[in-house]
């Protein structure tokens, strides 16, 4: 079946528009870049939710010739072709300047996300791919915002979503996401670990076609607590929860000391790692595959993937932003959309 995917262009002063335009310019190589995902690129329908004037200005800045066609949300998206881009238009409040944040445009960024979620929920599109937003500037505009993951959870009314980043040979999911470090230990509850583990296990089966996925679980404390001498969360919370999960048919492996869990002899037998917090898991993943990884929100009724990088304001409009992660995110979105419609 031919899939329709939408890409949100993210923070207007960041590199989201740049990487989208670069992918459009290079679409002639899509089959090569997406070969790993087995996506049929000749059938893929793609649209970008953004201000068309912003894309036009950034294309000129980058010296790219991209023909932009406006499409309304209820119209079908064209099959993607090199040098062309279908745009579902949303107007900026003020013209952007590459590299310079402007809180006046925060509502625009959120509007692009709302349109994407609603179109995916209605079945108009089979998945959404997000370019990076700037969490800080959205908060400065007066809207509490910790990330796409939490925003999408609320908008889709999903009880538990899971952030998982994936690159070749490694998938890392998180028990907690965008939390200050000092709040992490209290958030590692049996209920949260159990909910996240169930979502992760089922998503690996449903969206990635893995039967009985093997998931390694990190401890929270150094050396997984050293039998309680370096913290008790493993003994009091994590181990009993993993035992209960095994009883319900979700066997996970751990908790293992996070420093050595990521050694190859462990990873070669694993389908995914479950880390307790953001900077326990993601630095390893980004070290292994920054620029070739995607961020995937599991557990929602819609497919959502994202680039693995942020707004990189220093690179916006320079032509130096690498678009590799957007290719990866597109590949995962198409692959998951396929798995769900098969
Ligand atoms: N998916 C998302 O929406 C997302 C993801 C990560 C960070 N962010 C947000 O982005 C903002 C900036 O975050 P940050 O500075 O921690 O991370 P960043 O990814 O924007 O930048 C980190 C470093 O990587 C470089 N870099 C990033 N993307 C690149 C690319 N495509 N090609 C080449 N180099 C690249 C940057 O120049 C910088 O040196 C923050 O507000 C953060 O919350 C958003
Ligand atoms: N934690 C993500 C990362 O480091 O790549 C990033 O902040 C984006 O998260 P959202 O998809 O929730 O915006």
Automatic annotation (TrEMBL):
Signal peptide location: none
Pfam families: PdxA
Its EC number(s): 1.1.1.262
Pathway listed: Cofactor biosynthesis; pyridoxine 5'-phosphate biosynthesis; pyridoxine 5'-phosphate from D-erythrose 4-phosphate: step 4/5
Co-factor remark: Binds 1 divalent metal cation per subunit. Can use ions such as Zn(2+), Mg(2+) or Co(2+).
Binding site for a divalent metal cation: 178, 223, 278
Cofactor requirements of the protein: Zn(2+); Mg(2+); Co(2+)
Any one cellular-component term (Gene Ontology): cytoplasm
Keyword vocabulary terms for this entry: Cobalt, Cytoplasm, Magnesium, Metal-binding, NAD, NADP, Oxidoreductase, Pyridoxine biosynthesis, Zinc
Molecular function in Gene Ontology: 4-hydroxythreonine-4-phosphate dehydrogenase activity; cobalt ion binding; magnesium ion binding; NAD binding; zinc ion binding
Subcellular location: Cytoplasm
Membrane-spanning parts: none
Gene3D superfamilies: Isopropylmalate Dehydrogenase
Catalytically driven reaction(s): 4-(phosphooxy)-L-threonine + NAD(+) = 3-amino-2-oxopropyl phosphate + CO2 + NADH
Binding site for substrate: 148-149, 286, 295, 304
Leftover remarks: The active site is located at the dimer interface.
Subunit field text: Homodimer.
NCBIfam families: pdxA
Biological function: Catalyzes the NAD(P)-dependent oxidation of 4-(phosphooxy)-L-threonine (HTP) into 2-amino-3-oxo-4-(phosphooxy)butyric acid which spontaneously decarboxylates to form 3-amino-2-oxopropyl phosphate (AHAP).
Family, similarity comment: Belongs to the PdxA family.
Protein's name according to its UniProt entry: 4-hydroxythreonine-4-phosphate dehydrogenase
Gene behind this protein: pdxA
């Amino acid at each position: 079946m031919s899939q329709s995917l939408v890409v949100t262009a993210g923070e207007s002063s960041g590199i989201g528009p740049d990487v989208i335009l670069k992918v459009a310019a290079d679409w002639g190589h899509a089959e090569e870049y997406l070969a790993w995902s087995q996506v049929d690129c000749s059938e893929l329908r793609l649209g970008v939710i953004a201000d068309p004037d912003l894309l036009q200005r950034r294309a000129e800045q980058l010296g790219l010739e991209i023909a932009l066609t406006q499409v309304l949300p209820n119209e079908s998206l064209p099959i993607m072709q090199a040098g062309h881009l279908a745009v579902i238009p949303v107007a900026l409040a003020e013209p952007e300047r590459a590299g310079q944040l402007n809180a006046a445009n925060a509502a625009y960024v959120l509007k692009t996300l709302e349109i994407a979620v609603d179109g995916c929920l209605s079945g108009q599109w089979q998945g959404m791919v997000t370019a990076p937003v700037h969490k800080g500037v959205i908060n400065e505009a007066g809207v509490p915002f910790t990330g796409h993951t939490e925003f999408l959870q609320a908008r889709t009314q999903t009880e538990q979503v899971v952030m998982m980043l994936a690159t070749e040979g490694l998938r890392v999911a998180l028990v907690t996401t965008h939390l200050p470090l000092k709040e992490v230990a209290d958030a590692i509850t049996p209920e949260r670990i159990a909910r996240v583990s169930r979502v992760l296990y089922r998503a690996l089966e449903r969206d990635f076609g893995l039967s009985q996925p093997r998931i390694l679980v990190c401890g929270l404390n150094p050396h997984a607590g050293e039998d309680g001498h370096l913290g008790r969360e493993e003994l009091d919370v994590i181990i009993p929860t993993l035992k209960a999960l095994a009883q319900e048919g979700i066997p996970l492996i751990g908790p293992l000391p996070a420093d050595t869990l990521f050694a190859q002899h462990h990873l070669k037998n694993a389908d995914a790692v479950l880390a307790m917090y953001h900077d326990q898991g993601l630095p390893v993943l980004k070290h292994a595959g920054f620029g070739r990884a995607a961020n995937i929100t599991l557990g929602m009724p819609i497919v959502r993937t994202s680039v693995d990088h942020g707004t990189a304001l220093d690179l916006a409009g320079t032509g130096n932003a690498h678009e590799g992660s957007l290719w990866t995110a597109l590949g995962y979105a198409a692959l998951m959309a396929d798995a769900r419609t098969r």
